[in-house]
Design goal:
Mean pLDDT: 79
Shape: flat
Helix content: 40-55%
Number of strands: 17
Largest sheet: 3 strands, antiparallel
Strand order of the largest sheet: 1-3-2
Strand content: 15-25%
Distance between the termini: 101 Å
Radius of gyration: 60 Å
Length: 568
């Protein structure tokens, strides 16, 4: 390998020396261009490929913030560039988010969604451009609609009539859409989603009105017939109102149970019925209140109230004092002519008249508070019924044992709920539901004895099994005690019999030994020469050893004798 590399290096050196300067410069340029292209390829392949959400930058910071918050709500990963463009990871996500932004009116004003047609080509006619525009709009609408999570497929047909000179002769733009909902989607019943699709189509096509859009499902049912859905909307509203009432009733039921369960026990409390009447109509109330003006506020550090107030304070005063004294004025005619004063007024000439008028007007200011509130929904009446059971306890005899009926059931004693406890429970229930006499609420708490037959049967059966187990255990213990006593007695009797047997054997051995010694002594006395063989001498030695062993270890010898007797 080393020799091959050496020869390769020598060959490259030889070729490099044979090349001329232009060839060397050309080779260096090729190598440099190759390296630059390789580096650029690595850089562009490593950079993430992103697509813009909108092709134009968003100049309004508030709109940019709203769009970013909506993207965060959909858990979409995005990047905001330095020129306020929002970049997404793929085109499908961008299409889905464009559909959502269009449905929720978050597209910035002035944004052209059809910037695809900004590129003009000299080889296309106006008709072809219109056809391409219709195709692009149709295809883009289908992509937007299918990008929704509730739509599996969509087919869009748009009719763009030719423009007429007079508006009366102009045919309207129409659109028909067939959508295939995904399994489990509620788009057929959800009016809001259908309105979003309708708004998406209306904003996508210029001059298209809502009444000229038809959205159907594959079965031919029109989904955007909102006028025909009035009954459905009414039923949906009724269902929501009933759901609110049921939720309120469940909350009150839980409040009653939590208030009484810790006192009487959950098994003794039963909410028989609770009904909440609610006014679901929207009502606006305007209240104007007049109250005194406080001049000296109360000091909280003193034990008494120091508040001083006045009902009103003067704001402006107007006084008029008018007096008049003198004769009346009788008009006369032109000089030299008789006046035209009637005789009745002419008789009043020379009389003195007085007139006096005094007026005083004072404007006062008072505190005024005006409150306007909308109430919907409002609780009109609450009715609640609660039943409380008494307590049951087992009956015991004088020895402390449970009393049993003839049928084997337990004797129980019932104690009813007192009136004081019922009154206290009623007060707790009233506080739990927010009782109001002005509203006409009604709360009933009664003592009722619950049917506990199944519970008592189960307790009796469990008590019987427990007693049976106790009796079985007692009998087993007695049997074990009898066996232990019998075994102990047997061992004592066996030991006594063995002891007596061993004493008897010892007595017999002692008698035999005495008889043998007496015979030996008699033989010695008679000086009889007894010739013993080797076997007899060995037997006598063995007998002496056995006798000595019997004296030293009587129990072992007795055991050995019993073994011999058993073998014989």
């Amino acid at each position: 390998m080393k020799e091959w590399l050496t020869r390769l290096r020598e060959r490259i050196t030889t070729l490099w020396g044979e090349w001329k300067t232009p060839q060397k410069l050309m080779f260096g340029g090729i190598v440099a261009v190759t390296l630059v292209a390789f580096v650029m390829l690595i850089l562009f392949s490593a950079a993430p490929s992103q697509v813009p959400l909108l092709r134009r930058p968003i100049t309004d910071p508030q709109q940019l913030t709203d769009i970013a918050n909506r993207l965060d709500a959909e858990n979409v990963v995005y990047t905001i560039t330095a020129d306020n463009r929002i970049m997404l990871d793929d085109e499908r996500t961008a299409q889905r988010m464009r559909a959502i932004l269009t449905r929720e009116d978050l597209i910035p004003s002035g944004t052209d969604p059809w910037e695809l047609f900004d590129i003009d080509r000299w080889t296309l006619t106006d008709f072809e451009r219109n056809v391409n525009l219709r195709r692009s709009i149709t295809r883009q609408l289908e992509q937007h609609i299918t990008a929704l999570t509730d739509v599996d497929a969509a087919s869009v047909t748009i009719v763009l009539p030719e423009r007429q000179l007079f508006s009366a002769d102009q045919n309207p733009v129409t659109a028909s859409v067939i959508i295939t909902p995904k399994p489990g989607s509620d788009i057929r019943e959800n009016r809001r989603k259908v309105e979003g699709i309708e708004k998406l189509i209306r904003f996508a096509v210029e001059g298209l009105r809502a009444e000229n859009i038809t959205i159907t499902d594959p079965t031919g049912v029109v989904l955007n017939d909102f006028q025909g859905m009035q009954d459905f909307d009414r039923l949906e509203l009724t269902r929501r109102e009933l759901a609110i009432i049921r939720e309120q009733e469940v909350r009150y039921r839980q409040a009653i149970v939590s208030a009484l369960a810790e006192i009487f026990g959950r098994s003794r409390v039963q909410v028989v019925n609770i009904n909440v009447d609610m006014d679901m109509g929207k009502r606006t109330e305007e209240t104007e209140e007049f109250f005194p003006i406080i001049t000296v506020p109360n000091n909280p550090n003193t034990p008494f109230d120091e508040t001083e107030f006045v009902l009103s304070i003067p704001r402006s005063t107007e006084r008029v004092d008018e007096k008049y004294e003198g004769t009346g004025f009788n008009p006369q005619g032109p000089p030299g002519m008789e006046g035209q004063t009637p005789p009745a007024y002419r008789d009043l000439e020379g009389l003195v008249g007085r007139w006096s008028n005094q007026e005083e007007r004072t404007n006062h200011e008072i505190n005024t508070r005006r409150t306007m509130e909308e109430k919907s929904p409002a609780i009109e009446r609450i009715t609640a019924s609660v039943a409380i059971d008494g307590t049951w306890r087992w009956s015991y005899d004088e020895r402390g044992d449970v009393e049993i009926n003839p049928d084997g059931s337990i004797v129980r004693v019932y104690t009813p709920v007192s009136e004081q406890e019922l009154a206290a429970a009623r007060e707790l229930v009233e506080h739990a539901v927010g009782f109001s006499e002005r509203r006409g609420d009604a709360v009933s708490v009664r003592h009722l004895q619950f049917d506990r037959t199944a519970q008592f049967s189960e307790e009796d059966e469990r008590f019987r099994r427990q007693r049976q187990i106790q009796m079985i255990v007692l009998y087993v213990l007695i049997g074990i005690a009898v066996l232990l006593v019998s075994f102990i007695v047997f061992r004592l009797v066996s030991r006594e019999i063995e002891r007596r047997r061993r004493l008897r054997e010892e007595e017999l051995a002692r008698q035999h030994q005495a008889m043998r010694e007496a015979a030996l002594r008699s033989a010695e006395e008679e000086s009889a020469e007894v010739e013993m063989s080797v076997e007899e001498r060995a037997r006598m030695e063995l007998e002496e050893m056995a006798i000595n062993m019997a004296r030293e270890h009587p129990e072992d010898v007795a055991q050995l004798v019993r073994t011999w007797l058993a073998e014989e």
